[in-house]
Amino acid sequence: MISAERIPNNVDLHLNKRLQRALEHWQPQYIQWWKDMGPQGFQEYHQVYVRTAVSVDPSGWAHFEYVKLPEYRWGIFLADPVINRTIGFGDFEGQPVWQEVPGEFRNQLRRLVVTQGDTEPASVEQQRWLGHRCPSLYDLRNLFQVNVEEGRHLWAMVYLLHSYFGRDGRDEAEELLARQSGNRDKPRILEAFNEPIDTWLDFFMFTMFTDRDGKSQLLSLSESSLDPLSRTTRFMLTEEAHHMFVGETGIARIVDRTCQLMKDEQSGFSEDIRKLGGIDMPTIQKFINLWFSLSLDLHGNEISTNAASYFANGLKGRAEEAKWEDHKVADSSYRLETVQDGQVVKTDVPMRNAMNEVLRDWYVGDCQAGVDRWNKLIERHGISDRLRLPDRKFNRGIGQFADHHFDPNGRMLSDEEWKRRKYEWLPAPSDKEYLMSIMNASIFEPGRFANYIAPPQRGIKGKPVNFEYVRTEA
Ligand code: BYC
Asked: How far apart are CA 231 and CA 300, in angstroms?
């Protein structure tokens, strides 16, 4: 049933017959998709202590209750309008923002909305088996919270498709449920969203690094001249923050536990940690290398005419556009690395063509701040190991470096050396096997945590750490 009660919203859904009709058709398909492709084994008999957004103000936002996952109330929210908002960058700077899609930019905008929308269900699909290996009820609940919010982000993009893109938009909304992560014939659009997320180390790295690409992209879309896109993505950013919290603190808790085990062992050698059932630092580093490099790819090619045209037309800006001085960026250039004749060289390109790289700069800085916080924790334990981000050229599948190999220091390697050494830097099948062996069962006892991860410092919404965050029905 399509009702404001079932679908919390601030878009006057009760008055909008066209949107109601479109959703009446789409929503049952969505629920079917959620049951088939969402969290496996936790749909029928489990209740999860989740937050549901019921309005955009902080009080409506912090509404917590036990919910059966398929009964979650996925809503449609736009951040409050900015009165007299004008276009903030590009060739139309200073003109009023658009409340409808201009015909000449319809294809480009649809493509951006579809690409953004495609990542949301993809991530739910990637994570659908993790519940069976959860390290605690607290973590299980966080996984499901992230999943239902990714579902809501899909709703946000489907709202835009249904409301602003007519028949094509309705077709695209259906396609978003038809593509599947990792499916050979109908894969998800962006590559990182076809990678398996088999272990909780992958999950925390994904929410740290890939959700942070979500943050960069949503920040840049929230600058858009298309006001409904800007307002929708502005509200999504508030949810994204929680996903990155789950990732960053998840890794911090693993690192914390690893440090404790290193001290208990008194040898201080990370290599001994596996004997104690923990996750050694070199393994943590390999997963950083993997998920950081995959997420760098998500920013697109370093030199991109798509990016230039998105910027010129005001469709997609830079993160925190207001902090820049020049919003037209018509004449400046940007110096970046490329490969020419087998050598890495610095090249100047028109700044508009380098907008993907400019956003990547913002992203790398934000990731580095998180890694610094992990290193402070290790330092507090008095341990000398340090984690780091690999060079941007390492393990790239998209862009200027995709046809070459580099080590994490950015040194170019021959194909032969890469093949021989790649598992020094990336997870090897044996690393995955080890992780699966310590994650082979779920821990459902409130307050208990798997041996490889420390408990969090506090629970959720003032509840204790040993609260029953997921319960089976009485
Ligand atoms: N994989 O000029 P180029 C999130 C394609 S994550 C596969 O380099 P452009 C979330 C590209 O489509 C944020 N293909 O790229 C996180 C193009 O194809 P065509 C998601 C790729 O267009 C966690 C060709 O290569 N949001 O929210 O400047 C959980 C050359 O294009 C990839 C967005 O992505 C790739 N990685 O930039 C849940 C925002 N990269 O035209 C959710 C919307 C490029 O030759 N998307 N290609 O067929 C965009 O702004 C842009 O599409 C991109 C690419 C930044 C992704």
From this structure: 24
CA of 342 to the centre of ligand 1 (A): 26
Q: d(Cα 137, Cα 82) in Å, to the nearest integer?
A: 40
Q: Which tokens is 406 given? A: 């580099």
> Which amino acid does the sequence have at 194?
N
Confidence (pLDDT) at 474: 59
Q: Which residues line ligand 1 (CB under 6 A)?
A: 112, 115-116, 119-120, 123, 150, 190-191, 210-211, 213-214, 217, 297-301, 304, 306-307, 316, 356, 398
The pLDDT tens digits for 13-55 are 999 999 999 999 999 999 999 999 999 999 999 999 999 988 8
Ramachandran class of 167: left when φ > 0, alpha when ψ lies in -120 to 50, beta otherwise: alpha
Give the Å distance between the CA of 173 and the centre of ligand 1. Answer: 18
C-alpha angle 403-406-410 in degrees, rounded to nearest 5: 130
pLDDT tens digits, 302-361: 999 999 999 999 999 999 999 999 999 999 999 999 999 999 999 999 999 999 999 999
Residues 6+ apart with CB under 8 A from 4: 13, 14
Question: Distance, CA 298 to ligand 1 centroid (Å)?
Answer: 6
Q: Is 300 left (phi over 0), alpha (psi -120 to 50) or beta?
A: left
Choose which residue among 190, 191, 302 to substitute to test ligand 1 binding: the one with the highest number of ligand atoms within 8 A of its C-beta.
Answer: 190
Query: What b-and-e string marks burial along 211-246, b requiring 16 or more CB atoms within 10 Å of the CB?
Result: bbbbbbbbbbbbbbbbbbbbbbbbbbeebbebbbeb
List C-alpha distances in Å: 188 to 124, 173, 192, 424: 12, 14, 9, 29
Ligand 1 nearest-atom number relative to CA 399:
8
Contact 287, 412 (CB under 8 A): no
Considering only CA atoms, which residue is closest to atom 13 of ligand 1? 214
